[in-house]
Structure formats: structure tokens, C-alpha cells
Design goal:
Residues 1-311 form the DUF403 domain. The chain is mostly helical. The protein has helices spanning 3-33, 41-51, 54-60, 66-74, 83-96, 103-121, 131-151, 156-184, 194-206, 210-216, 222-231, 239-254, 263-276, 280-286, 288-320. The protein has 2 domains: 1-152, no CATH class; 155-321, no CATH class.
Length: 321
Amino acid sequence: MLSRVANTMYWMNRYIERAENYARFMDVNFNLSLESQPNAEEQWKPLVVITGDWPLYQSLYETVNKNNVIYFLGFDPQNQNSIYSCITQARENARSIRPEITKEVWEQINAIYFFVKDGLEKKRWKNNDPRMFFKKIKENCQLLYGILDATISRNDGWHFGKIGQLIERADKTSRVMDVKYHILLTTHQEVGGPLDLMQWAALLKSVSAYDMYRKKYGKLTAVNISEFLILDKRFPRSMLCCLIHAEKSLQEITGNTGGFSNEAEKQLGKLKSELEFIEIGDVFESGLHEYLDEFQKRLNAVSLGLYNSFFAAQAQTQIQQ
């Protein structure tokens, strides 16, 4: 497979996953904001911090409020990570590899694009209750996942796309946990209180983990929720589960089932193994924020390893030929 096609499939899926995560974050956060003061900065600022785009937000807006944050994360063309920008980039990636995807995939990506574009033109972020708009984005992205799984052959392109989706998902799970632990809960006196439990429940709902968590653990506790979202091997949005399946797709591409044959396999394998053999008590002992921050850096190293092992290396080979 051409490196250009592999890279495009990888990023197309990352952009779609990113857009869907932003939609679910804002949907849940809006529900949570109904319990607090309207436009409370402490309610909306964490959403921007999750994305890593807080410096850009500060350069564009003077205040933090509901409308500004929803527009910035949902619609702002100046924010390359907004839902509108991600869906636009995913559509452009799909267009450039149109022969490699199915008619059904192309039609669904177009449907999402025109839905989000219509939302921008009709200024949906000014709605008193924009939850239905973001719920439809989430549902449309999930429909696209199903179409991708049902209509694309399990070739290298599909596996590169799956790796992109899973790395993006693991990253966003870690970020939403980090923000909850260090920003939303501001005083130690609130730990274990009604506000704390409401925020942890909202965190679980933001990654569609509430029902599966309650089936496994029942009571809401910070330690159990952290263990579920970091170390659970079966829940599809846990950080470890994402890495397990990303590694399987990488092995399908390389044909290597033992050790490593390139930098991507090395970085991904080490990170997955460390999560498999760590206990949640060790995570909290080292500091949850510090652990999640290091995880995000290691995940960036995996992405860089993929680029150097497949996309950049093959592109250079083609140039030389």
C-alpha cells in the first residue's frame, strides 16, 4: 500500500474519532452545566483544556462562556481541532483516496459534513439547547464506524484507519480523566461529596462508560473509575483496550507476532505491556495527573513511530525510485 493512502486512512479515522469525542464531551458538559450557574467559567474552560487548545482560545476570545466555547470547539474554522474542521479534513482525506473506500463510506462522510456545515451556517451554537445537534453528530459518526466495519475489506488500509481511531480514542480518554481530576474538583473537601460524584458520573457518560462501569463495580469511586478507564481489557474506550487492539492491527500490517520489527511496534508494545502489568494503586501512588501526562507523551511517541516507520520511510523510498 502507498504510504500516502495509509497515512490518509490513518488521519481520516483520527479526525472522525476526534469530532465524535468533542460532540460527546459537549453534550454531557451541557447536561452538567444545568446544575451550575449559567456560563460559569469553571464549567466550560475544562472542555478547551481537554483539547490542548487553551492558548489558541485565549488568543481569540476575551472571556470563557458557553457560546464562545461551543463555537470554538464545534464550529470555529480557525480552530483546526473543532468538529467542523475535523469533519472537513476527514472529508478531504476521503476524497483524496476515493477509490480505496466504498460508496457507502463516502456518502456517510458527506452527510456528516453537510450536517455540520448547515449547523455553522444556521449558528446552532446560539441555540438555548444545542444537545440534539451534538447528539446527531455522535450518532452519525457511530453510523460511519459501522459502515467502515461492514463494507471495507480487512486490508492494510482498514488496519491503518483502525489504529488511528484507537490512538485518538485512548488519547481523549486520558485527557478527559486528567481534566476531571485537576480542574473540575477544586478543593479536597469536596472529594466524595455530591459534586464529586456528579462529576465522576458525567465523566463516565462522556465516554459512554456509565452502564458498563455500574455493571462491573456498582458504586462510584475515583479509584474504580480510574481503573476501569485506564486498565480494563474489555471496555472499548479504556486506554489499555485501545492499545491492545491497535497492536493487533499493527501486527496484521507487519505480519510480526513476536518482538518488534520497527519503531512503531516497539513504542506501542512497550506502552501496552506497561499498562497490562501496572496496578491502579501504583498509578495513584505516582500521581494520576503525572501518569496521564506521561501516557499522552508516550502516545505521541507511538504516533511519531508510525510516521517514521511507514509514512515517511515509504514516501522517501518512492522519491528515490
